[in-house]
Amino acid sequence: MKRFANDIARRWLLAALIVAILATGAVSPRQALASQEGVTNAKVVLRKSDSRDSKALQTLPEGEEVTVLSSSGDWYRVRYGQYTGYIMKEYLDVTDTSAGEIRQLGTAPGIMRVGDENSDVVKLQKALNILGYYDGKIDGIYGSGTTQAVKDYQDDHDLEVDGYAGQATVKSIFGSCNSVSLTTQPEPGSSTTSSSSSSSASSKYPTVSSIAQIGSAPGTSREGDTGSDVVKLQQALECLGYYSGAIDGVYGSGTVAAVKAFQKKREMNDDGIAGSSTIRVLFGSVGSSSGSSSGSSSSTQYKTEVLDWFEDDVSSVIPKNAVFTIKDVKTGKTFEAVRWSGYNHLDAEPRTSEDTATMKAIYGGSWSWSRRAILILYNGHVYAASMNGMPHGTSTINNDFSGHFCIHFLNSRTHETDRVDPDHQSAVQTASRATW
Fold first, then answer.
1. Please, where are the H alpha helices in 242-328?
2. Looking at residue 108, what DSSP letter applies?
3. Considering the chain, what is the average pLDDT of its residues?
């Protein structure tokens, strides 16, 4: 009996010690890993486990980029393409990239609530993923997974743990909170819809959660115009958080103000006119004709630029997480892509499942390592480049594309051989003679 009592006492003591340790923060049952990036400072071996005697998975050249997953003694656990392994800390220069990656998501969203389904929720999910709190599907739906991720973030940052992405939470994550909210959900504890959703009730046309849903780009338009081009413009501006009025196809003062805000943010001439330059920045191209009742569309051809990957520092011209439009020179088909990473060349992923389908159609319905001449439209410029069409390595987007693909520029190199690929360079030269 005495032995039983002592056993019970020991168990209670052990339980108390565990609680005390957790309370001091010495051990955390859930520790978020913020986004960290490492660059090798010497030629190094990626090993299967944290031991010099462990199996070598891959040899990485100096200057190669990896994603840091965790730390263990003298080793970092990293992801490199399709491999996950260990590199000694002394051979890796590591930086926390989460703040910069979140800034690259663009304008901060407004407040969000459970039940929302829009582009602001996409940004929230991406930011929480970068910070290590969310590993679900980036689908723009504020469901239970997003709610739990928000709660976990709030709990770690001394915020009210309610799962609601209010102003304090959004500002903590993004550094600011947009005064315009896309939410159509009622205030917590209220049975009526919020005032921000009043515009949706008077809209004749639906809202969208991504610009890709809008379809082809509209023609140009201006104040006083009406029609389908204005509808598409309003949908895009609402999707990006600049417009909160009715989607009615009427280019009024609210649309003018939204266009001006977008232009100012993108450092354009903020005249409130949705001209060809503004439409291109919004959609990547301009519609061939205008459906407005007044105004006219214009077609300005871009000059194709050839950038040297290293000398022109293309990595800073098209940064990580940049969204750009690719045009296949031979077929004329276009699709959107997102830059993932890449040191010797650019690694990218199709932005959506629809973009993946378009890319696959460009390759005749089958993935291939074949090089194709392409033009890249980004930030008002068109660049000559070359791509292959084979999914490989790391995948970060739910887009029906199991990996990423490579994009080469003038004098860029392969990651495996650190050499210039003549087939890619030939395709770049072909692209340099093409126009958008």
1. 253-265, 276-283, 314-317
2. P
3. 81
